[in-house]
Every structure is written in structure tokens, then in C-alpha cells.
Amino acid sequence: MSNWATWSTSRRLLRVTRVDRPAGIARLPRPRSVKPASAAGSCGLCSDGYNVGELIGRTSSPEEATYVPMGWLCWHCLVQRRQQPRRRDVLLRVFHALFAGDGIGLIDRLVHHLDTANERIDYRHRRETLRAWWIPASTWEELTAQMPRRGAPDLGRLKCQTTSVFVWTTITQGDVLLAPRPLNADVSRPRPVGWSNQRNQFWDHLAHSKHLKHYVDLRQALTKYAAHLAQEIESRSTT
User: Fold this and answer.
1) Does pTM surpass 0.90?
2) What are the strands, taking DSSP E only, across 79-127?
């Protein structure tokens, strides 16, 4: 019997019930049967169409399958998808790993972890607790007292509000647009000219900068403060 990988050019086979398993790394399982298609159709895995006479096949299914077995597969999915993968093959592989129903999929592991976790974070409670919150003036002074001032922007109350938004999103995992901004609601306080652009630039540096020491130090201090405040909220909710 000739190697089954050469049968794609043969039209003599009506049906094959015994074929060799492909060689190589990450070998595919031996197909249950291979035959030339008697009618045009589509692959049960990648959905590509095949024409009459093209070789198609079926794979073996577990006896206790927790999913609907696939239909006829095209020659690529049957033989070549491991050795000559397309982008679609990689995506299908990831999809099956995530949503496999046999207990070994990543989604199953995540659900199991969440079901067995001893502590779950109530982010809604955190958002309700910090509904009208921003960093108190005394805490702000303490956080920024040790920050290097040379070349650093003026850390006024408007920038305190922006850093409060950073802490709020860190603690609540909420959308930045939903964070409280008390100063924005106070129309009696004039805003500096160009503050919107300065605020956006300040936020971008605070959230993403890796090389500007002032912002890196400030972000680390705020992250540490956010962790401490989150612990306080959790401890109050359990007492």
C-alpha cells in the first residue's frame, strides 16, 4: 500500500478504511476513512469548499465525545494543517483549546478556578464606596513630597484629580470615563488655559511612560497606595 499522503493525485480509490498515520512533529490522528468526494461540499473544520473527485476524509471520534463529531474534512485539514498551517488553522487550534468540552480546555480551567476561589473581589462594592472619592489633600501632599521637582510639572489639584482617576481605575477596574471628577462639576473654579491638552499629556505619561523618572515614580507610588486603599475597603466590608 502506498503512502496515504500521495493519494491526493489518485482517482482510483473509491473508499479507504485503513491508512497510515502522517509522520512528523505533532502528527495528526489516522483518519477513519478517505474517499473522493461524490458531490461538492464544504469542509467540516475550516468550511472551505471541495469539488467532486477531490479527496475528503473523516477522523476518528472518541467513544464518549462531548461534542458533535465533525463531518467530512478537506484534504488540507485531514493531512496538511499541522505541517503547512494557515493562519486560519492556528486560530481554529486556539479556539478549540479555549472551548474544548472535555475538561482540559482553558475556559474549563478558568471556570474551575473561579468556582473554587476562596476570595472574590466585589468591584461593584468598590465603585460604590469610591463613588465621590478623590485623593485627600493630606495624602496627596504625602505622596508627592518625595517626588523630584526638577523638570516636573506642577502637581496642583487638577492633576491630583487626574491621579485620583488613575487610582480609581486601578482599584475598581472601571472605565476611566466613569471615574468621579469633583473639580469638573465645580464651575466656580477656573481652569488653567490649555488644561485639557495638559491633562491628556499628563495621563498618557502617567499610564504608559517607562523612561520619564517623575512619572514612573509617581505611578509606582499611586499603585502602592491603590493596593493599600483596596485592602482598607475590603477590611471594612467584612467587619
Assistant:
1) no
2) none
